[in-house]
Amino acid sequence: MERILAAAKAIASARRSRAPLKALAKDAVPRDEAEGYQVQRALHDLLQAQVGSLVGYKIGCTSAVMQEYIGIDHPCGGGVFEKVVHDSGVQLAAADYVHVGVECEIAVRLARNLAASEAPFTAEWVGEAIEAYYPAIEIVDDRYVKWETLGAPTLIADDFFAAGCVLGEAVPRNTAPDLLRVTGRAIINGKEESRGTGADVLGHPHNALAWLANHLAAEGRGLHAGQIVLTGSLIKTVWLKAGDSVLMELDGLGKVEATFT
């Protein structure tokens, strides 16, 4: 559809040039969230040369603090790409983003496929499909002139702020702590900025994963073994400036660090 591609091209152009995105042209604005996801898929095709292949997903607005902050009362998904998944300790240039921020997350790696034909998925079902957990920093980018005015369909079209992630050491599922009791702390330049718990993520991070699996299944798509899923932030987004060092500590899962130079 022409309007889907027009929207995807406009967003891809802004992402490549790191130019803050204004509202899309009236005839290109996705009319609803379903259309937003169509634009997102077209965008992924256009960005592949720049960011690499799709290796997983992020889920936004899974906690009350983030739903209130963004003003959207339900989860939203975006893509995670090969070239923007980093190991703990990475140094990244703040200038590579429009306005970079970080979120404290529990990430999962899948041991097996979750095919669309297996839906509907429950938290218990998807929990059994997890191979390992990671302490994670989701990197987000406020790529917009004023995101508050764009609406959920356009934010979804642009991967819902996603700009990559930093992963700590993998923790096998059979040795992982009770996620409900995991407290995550965001420490910026040595000072704790915020904290939250696994229970803040839709009641349990597995609920967020089940939401994603069911959302993709409704589009006839599945999750695949080896994919990474960021289940949602335990804290409100912390926006950064050049020179900031970031440490996320998650009880029982370990820590993950990054510096934005």
TrEMBL record:
Domain of life: Bacteria
EC number: 4.2.1.80
GO MF annotations in UniProt: 2-oxopent-4-enoate hydratase activity
Enzyme class: lyase
InterPro entries reported for this sequence: Fumarylacetoacetase-like_C, Fumarylacetoacetase_C_sf, Hydratase-Decarb/MhpD_sf
Keywords annotated in UniProt: Lyase
Protein's name in the database: 2-keto-4-pentenoate hydratase
Organism from which the protein derives: Bradyrhizobium ivorense
